[in-house]
Amino acid sequence: MFENLKSIFKPKEAQKHIKVLVIEDSDVDQRIARAAIEKGGYTALVASDGKAGFEIAKAEKPKLIILDYNLPDTKGPDLCRMLKAHLDTQYIPVLFLTGMTDPDQVVNCFEQGENYLAKPISINLLLKQIDSILKDLPK
Predict the structure, then answer these.
(1) What is the largest CA-CA distance in the chain?
(2) 10: left (phi > 0), else alpha (psi -120 to 50), else beta?
(3) For 44, which of 1, 3, 95, 108 is 20 to 30 Å away at the CA?
(4) How far apart are CA 118 and CA 123, in angstroms?
(5) How many other β-carbons are positioned within 10 Å of the β-carbon of residue 17?
(6) pTM of the model
(7) How many angstroms separate the Cα of 49 from the Cα of each of 28, 57, 95?
(8) Using an 8 Å Cβ cutoff, are 50 and 71 in contact?
(9) What is the pLDDT of residue 12?
């Protein structure tokens, strides 16, 4: 009897082969993003600045990049333009994170055709965003 129930209520299948890169300088926001990524069964990659993030993106080719708007060495939109101009990273979707409330900054994210999530970050909301972005991508 319980065997039938187990087959109905399977836990979310792990998707460890899907990499998600977080480019974020805040340790707290890195931990929250990593928790959301791992809760979804994905593999988390982390960089604390734009230069390292760009190199990891080129080498690892993640399925999604979660990008802070303000980094110590660059602005997120500038790094996003670099990623979109590079052959190996041009098709990777980007989810911007920012604590900034300036509407022009939000518009700047959307003008690049990317997604946006305001800080403070909720693990569950971030995971829903990640799942939503990744569901339509080729595996």
Answers:
(1) 59
(2) beta
(3) 108
(4) 12
(5) 10
(6) 0.85
(7) 15, 12, 16
(8) yes
(9) 53
Half-sphere exposure of 135 (CA within 13 A, CB side): 7
Peptide bond into 120 cis (omega under 30): yes
Contact 53, 21 (CB under 8 A): yes
CA distances from 20 to 3, 8, 88 (A): 34, 29, 15
Instruction: State pLDDT tens for residues 46-69.
Output: 999 999 999 999 999 999 999 998
- Give the length of the chain: 139
Q: What does the CA dihedral 69, 86, 45, 34 come to, rounded to 10 degrees?
A: 30
